[in-house]
Specification:
Helix 10 packs across helix 13 (355-364). 43% of the residues lie in helices and 17% in strands. Strands 1-2-9-6-5-3-4 form a 7-stranded mixed sheet, sandwiched between helices. The protein has a two-stranded antiparallel ribbon with strand order 7-8. With 366 residues, it is α/β, with parallel strands linked by helices. The chain contains 13 helices and 11 strands. It has 2 domains: 3-173, Rossmann fold, CATH 3.40.50; 177-364, Up-down Bundle (Dehydroquinate synthase-like, alpha domain), CATH 1.20.1090.10.
Length: 366
């Protein structure tokens, strides 16, 4: 039985469906959106062997024709060459503004295909079908689309809301334990930024999410509902939505430092970033030392990284990492902007962070 979270954005409003078996029901879910019975699917080389045939069969069962493009897997796909390839392929398929493009995959595919849909014919509709925990609770909801640059992550993009999100929680069974844990970094973030009771629930239940479908569905639905509420209040990140970047200023710098490679997955970078944000908050006297200790203990219980020493291989020095933070999208008037916390569930944005404090926190976790 699926759950539905509505994202109320006036004429850009849409539903997020969450539950097991949604790929099998995709034809019936998507058919009402279509002006003509055909769609274009973009996926990647990891996801296609697992889920593409099931999606194509579900669409065919509802009388919907489909063509698919399979891109390389990995963060490096969020790039100009693959964006160009995707857009040109969609034009070859004669996708019109009334048509629908389906993004079947994790955050990389969702971000890339969403951006392609945003710029194709000045905007075509797309459906997010996220296949990772990270994408289901975060990147598939909210309309942020884009690609990476050599200067930093997600610096090229657009806000383009999906027409529908279908989060089939059963497909998460195909994730490796590492990928599942990496996605959990984004789940945990929601408790840390604005819901202490949810974080407490996660402390009791998070280790069961891979095996307990009811707990998994609750964690995904609660995360999506939190994000939907924030997006509805601040669609283009003028204020409150910035809180969703808890852990990301640190995390994006670490991803850039590791070349967007498998050395550090996005959710792992977010996990380390959340731990560092709470350490920095405690150092600045914003919260008690018990709070970062609690975050670190939870990450340890989940088998997740929490400091620079947990990143394999060498990292740039502290000043070089801080310079990478300077390319973050959240920089305003040249000032680094951090999401810090007065306690678990009490995050806020600030640009009042001194570089010496940053160096101290980074150095302490090497």
């Amino acid at each position: 039985m699926s759950q539905t979270v509505h994202v109320p954005l006036q004429d850009r409003a849409y539903d997020v469906r969450i539950g097991a078996g949604l790929i099998a029901r995709a034809g019936a879910e998507i058919a009402p959106l279509l002006a003509r019975p055909r769609v274009a699917i973009v996926t990647d080389a990891n996801v296609a062997p697992l889920h593409l045939a099931a999606l194509e069969a579900a669409l065919k069962g509802s009388g919907i024709a489909s063509e698919a493009l399979i891109l390389p897997a990995g963060e490096a796909t969020k790039s100009w060459p693959q964006l160009t390839r995707c857009v040109e392929w969609l034009l070859e398929q004669k996708i019109e503004r009334r048509d629908v493009v389906i993004a079947l995959g994790g955050g990389v595919i969702g971000d890339l295909v969403g951006f392609a849909a945003a710029i194709l014919r000045r905007g075509v509709r797309f459906v997010q079908m996220p296949t990772t925990l990270l994408a289901q609770v975060d990147s598939s909801v909210g309309g942020k689309t884009g690609i990476n640059s050599g200067h930093g992550k997600n610096l090229i993009g657009a806000f383009h809301q999906p027409a529908l999100v279908l989060a089939d929680t059963a497909v998460l069974d195909t994730l490796s334990p590492r990928d599942f844990r990496a996605g959990y970094g984004e789940v945990m973030k929601y408790g840390l930024l604005g819901d202490a009771a949810f974080f407490a629930w996660l402390e009791d239940h998070a280790t069961t999410l891979q095996d307990d479908m009811a707990a998994r569905d609750h964690a995904v639905a609660h995360s999506v509902a939190m994000k939907a509420g924030i997006v509805a209040r601040d669609e283009t990140e003028q204020g409150e939505r910035a809180l969703l970047n808890l852990g990301h200023t640190f995390g994006h710098a670490l991803e850039a430092a590791t070349g967007y490679s498998d050395r550090l997955l996005h959710g792992e970078g977010v996990a380390i970033g959340c731990a560092l944000a709470f350490e920095l908050s405690a150092r600045l006297g914003l919260c008690s030392q018990e709070e970062p200790s609690r975050v670190a203990a939870h990450l340890a219980a989940m088998g997740m990284p929490s400091g620079l020493e947990d990143v394999p291989g060498e990292l740039p020095d502290d000043d070089a990492l801080i310079a990478l933070m300077g390319q973050d999208k959240k920089v305003v008037d040249g000032k680094l902007r951090f999401i810090l916390a007065r306690g678990i569930g009490e995050a806020f944005a600030t640009d009042e962070v001194q570089r010496d404090d940053l160096r101290e926190v980074l150095a302490a976790t090497r």
